[in-house]
């Protein structure tokens, strides 16, 4: 009986411990944004634009592809193909129609009731990187 009891306690405390650790981790693992080198892109100032200034720019598309892979793919999926954790960004409105909403999310992330569904990326990576990613995403667009 004593053995059964302590085994039960051990099992219970193990469960509690695992539960506590799991609930403290963000749903998709720790978020460590990777700096993006945008020095080759024209400067666009600090004010947040509502239209992509780099659309179709091949340098931006290339920078955007790797920036996406380092900062967005773990939630939005490799090569922009979502595995279901976060929306599939290929289906966002392409071009000007989707630019403003894209930037809004990129800058503010998605936080509801204190839960971070998506961290704000703009303040960390900067607007230039955001538009570079958007330029690449436009090349992946699906109807
Ligand atoms: C920690 C996971 C995570 C990371 C990292 C992440 N996102 Fe998100 N993103 C989400 C989730 C979850 C949503 C849906 C939010 C909601 O339900 O409101 C979302 C929504 C979006 C949307 C709105 C999509 C739509 O159809 O309305 C855009 C745009 C977006 N993310 C862009 C990005 C970009 C660009 C990056 C990388 C710089 C990024 N996200 C990184 C989880 C993430």
Structural write-up:
The chain starts with a helix and ends with a helix. Mean pLDDT is 86; it is low at 14-26. It has helices spanning 2-24, 58-71, 73-76, 96-108, 122-125, 127-139, and strands at residues 110-112, 115-118. The chain is mainly alpha-helical and 143 residues long. A hairpin with a 2-residue loop joins strand 1 (110-112) and strand 2. The longest helix is centred in the first third of the chain and has 23 residues, at 2-24. The protein has 2 domains: 1-30; 34-139, Cytochrome c-like domain (Cytochrome Bc1 Complex, Chain D, domain 2), CATH 1.10.760. The protein is globular, with a radius of gyration of 20 Å. The protein is built from 6 helices and 2 strands. The protein has a two-stranded antiparallel sheet with strand order 1-2. Bound molecules: heme C. Residues 28, 31, 71-72, 74-76, 86-87, 89, 92, 102, 105-106, 110, 117-118, 121, 133 line the site of heme C. Heme C binds at residues 28, 31, 71-72, 74-76, 86-87, 89, 92, 102, 105-106, 110, 117-118, 121, 133.
């Amino acid at each position: 009986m004593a053995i059964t009891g302590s085994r039960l306690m051990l099992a219970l405390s193990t469960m509690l411990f695992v539960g506590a650790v799991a609930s403290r981790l963000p749903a998709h693992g720790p978020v460590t944004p990777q700096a993006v080198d945008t020095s080759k892109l024209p400067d666009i100032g600090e004010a947040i634009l509502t239209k992509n200034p780099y659309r179709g720019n091949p340098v931006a598309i290339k920078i955007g592809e790797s920036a996406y892979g380092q900062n967005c793919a773990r939630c939005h999926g490799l090569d922009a193909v979502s595995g279901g954790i976060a929306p599939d960004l290929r289906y966002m409105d392409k071009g000007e129609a989707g630019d403003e909403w894209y930037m809004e999310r990129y800058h503010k992330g998605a936080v509801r009731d204190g839960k971070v569904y998506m961290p704000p990326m703009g303040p960390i990576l900067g607007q230039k990187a955001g538009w570079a990613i958007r330029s690449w995403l436009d090349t992946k667009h699906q109807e």
